[in-house]
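Title: Request for sanity check on N6-adenine-specific methylase prediction

Description:
We are preparing a figure and want to confirm that the structure record we downloaded matches what your pipeline produces today. Could someone re-run it with the sequence below and paste the raw structure tokens into this thread? We only need the token string, no images.
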Amino acid sequence: MRIISGKHKGRRISPPKNLPVRPTTDMSKEALFNVLNNHFSFDGLKVLDLFAGTGNISFEFASRGSAPITSVDGDFGCVKFIKQVSSEYDFEIAATKSDVYKFLENCKTSYDIIFADPPYGLDQTAFEKIVLTVFERELLHEDGMMIIEHSKYTKMEHLSNFSFQKSYGGSFFSFFELNSTDDDEELTIDLSGKATEEDEG
């Protein structure tokens, strides 16, 4: 994987091959950050990266100047790797080994951006629980944004605070904001820029 922008643009990072992860592809990551770039100035953003895996998303935020960043994953190998890279690149990332749901239940901090990339195989309820817990516990800043990466088989549009959804290849990104209303137009936009009407029900 590579860092696509910021201070360490172009740097390639090679995680151990035995990590139990499905990293966000470079193409999807680039498209995602192009969207975020229209909403945020990255410098100084407080970020929470859930199911952080290799740290791919955390490193991208850190390269662009976001800090502090908290990366949460349940696998010791993933957390160890994130700590190693953070030390090498002097990233302000705190990597924490924890069950994501327990972390959220006990979290007393709020963030500008919360990104979650759960295993695609989790059931619908597990995905919904992440969003519900974040907003019930008020973990997102007033002008912040939460992003869930998921497959086309997971539906997020019906949840409160859903704002919009974008797709790239087999990956879908659902965006949530505190100020979203039920009157927002719900459509899926391909990250190539083409809006498509989809009834995935």
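Thanks, this matches our download. The chain has one domain: 26-196.
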